[in-house]
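subagent[fold] <- orchestrator: predict structure for attached chain, return tokens only, no commentary.
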Amino acid sequence: MSVRTAGAAHRGDLANLLTSDARLLDFARRAALVLVPLTLAIAFGLLGTGPTPGRNWFGELLGYDFSQVWLAGREALEGRAAQAYDLEAHLAAQATAFGPAAERFAWHYPPVFLLPAALLGLLPYAAAFPVWMLFSLCLFAVALRSATGRVEGVLIACAHPLVLCNLTYGQNGLLTASLLTLGALHLDRRPILAGLLLACVAYKPQLAALAPALLLLTGRWRALAACLAGLAGLCALSLLAFGPAPWQAFLDTLDQTNRIVLREAWSGLDINASAFGAVRLLGGSPVAAWTFQVAAAALAIGAAWRIWASDAPPALRTAALLAASPLVSPYVPLYDLAPLVPATALLAVEAHRRGGLTAAERGLLITSPIAAATLRSVAGATGLSLGLALALATLGLIAARSVPRRRPVPAVSARPSPV
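subagent[fold] -> orchestrator:
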């Protein structure tokens, strides 16, 4: 085959992906059969184990981000739960436990997250990290199975770069995506269960806030009551387990959290995929960033509210919550874009049910993994936030799909009635 013929064939294959749902699905299946084993090998093998305890095969700490979760859990088990909120003490404890290179994370989570952290702290670190990864991945698979109804839907979703991102760093984006997905999907048939699942996202209040707001605005009272009761139960359980000191410390450090996360951006401007982060990345002032953030949040809330208040099916309602939640928060590190994965899967499922993807929806499914894989490098090189663009595009297409399609009115015949 000549180079010209091969090039024409490749262009033809690309055109088929852009125009044929069947070809796109077939390509996604074949890509997932390669990427999922590769993802598991990298996450659980290359980066999840190593010749030195607590270190991967590159000599780096297993699960950098997870390290402080385990450490906070150990401190809580030892009766020092409030120490995680003491920045200097927490950084010093990281350096002591994992070496000077690990002295990099401040603890911003509400005390409810100390409950799972303490459970993980019962295990040695080298065991706790893979257990956390496996639990997150299994719950994500359950959520995607519920969302798509097909094993291949789980396989394709697990090939997404955001899954690998969360696994290798030991982050909780997959847990957030799973709880939001399962909670919203069960809303109609099991509202109590749905409310309790949504309450469990309380460890990420900036991403959890939209769900109860939508329950309130749309009058889903049983689910809202269960959500509030679940939240109260988690808070009470954390008080019972660790006392009031962590809660007082958490409230006392809110201004410090705002300084570290938003004003000084300790993690880097290129990691924050929110509207606030997009403006700051371009060199905009905090005032401009907050103005844009408020506008984006209002847009997201309005779109999600409209979809939830309509006759949209559960798949689109769930997808709207998943896509809108990251847009509401001023701080969205890349791994917290994980809810966009089940959101796009649900959009594809609903499109298939209605006869097929639109060109824009097909384009989103193609570009989403590419954009996710290059988010940070593009942000650092160009100052542009692909993460924000991806979230806005996903919510926009979900909203468009949720608009009722009017059936064409048949033309009235000019002939007189035979009756």
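orchestrator: received. Logging for downstream: Confidence is low (pLDDT under 50) at residues 5-11, 411-419. Residues 17-402 form one domain.
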